[in-house]
Write a structure and sequence with these properties.
alpha/beta, four-stranded mixed β-sheet, globular
């Protein structure tokens, strides 16, 4: 089971990007964290991108999309949801904690 949920809108946008933005063959969606330090998730920044799998990754699949998450990042993203927001003022992917409905960047 994939530790992060990816909304239907986000899946559509990821597939659109992979098909139309010259993402190389063999690449998948990388989900992870950056920053912080120590044992707490405070100061963590969530990241999303396209990458090849690495030895330290756990590999999952979401609607036919390969998803790569570094083993050391899994505990920080369990339960998070990746959503795609498209509005008049902004457009992009956001991470949401469904328990608090808090948007995290």
């Amino acid at each position: 089971m994939i530790p992060v949920k990816i909304s239907e809108e986000a899946i559509k946008e990821v597939k659109n990007i992979m098909e139309n933005k010259n993402i190389p063959e063999g690449y998948g969606l990388r989900v992870g964290v950056r920053g912080g330090g120590g044992c707490s998730a405070a100061g963590m920044n969530y990241m999303l991108g396209f990458d090849k799998p690495k030895e330290t990754d756990k590999t999952f699949e979401a609607e036919g999309i390969p998803v790569y998450i570094d083993k050391s990042h899994v505990m920080y993203i369990i339960g998070m949801e990746v959503q795609f927001h498209e509005g008049n003022d902004a457009r992009g992917f956001i991470f949401v904690n469904p328990e608090t409905e808090e948007e995290l960047k």
